[in-house]
Specification:
about 100 residues, 5-stranded mixed beta sheet, 5 strands, single chain
């Protein structure tokens, strides 16, 4: 089953948590360690995507075993950075409420 794994800053470190799971995620002191852990999870499951929420609110996506995500043909008037920040805030708010 394909899953989205989120890597996000939490306190003084970085957390790794699967989307839609009630389980507690893993915690790491560096972003590099957290991303490596997330990649290991995705590789074991043979497919999935990793969404990295950066400290500035921007998002980076890494895909393994799935088709690449295509960029939309029309640019948004809202701006990519603003949309990424809004989506990131929404996801992190949902994680905080679980």
């Amino acid at each position: 089953m394909t899953e989205t794994i989120h890597v996000f800053p939490l306190g003084e470190g970085w957390a790794v948590k699967g989307a839609g799971t009630g389980k507690n995620g893993a915690f790491f002191s560096t972003q590099k360690e957290a991303v490596a852990h997330a990649r290991g999870i995705v590789r074991r499951r043979m497919s999935g995507q990793i969404v990295i929420h950066r400290t500035n609110g921007r998002i980076a996506v890494s895909v393994h075993g799935l088709p690449r995500i295509q960029k939309p043909p029309v640019k948004s008037s809202l701006g990519t950075a603003n949309i990424e920040r809004a989506v990131s805030r929404l996801v992190l708010e949902r994680f905080a409420s679980v």
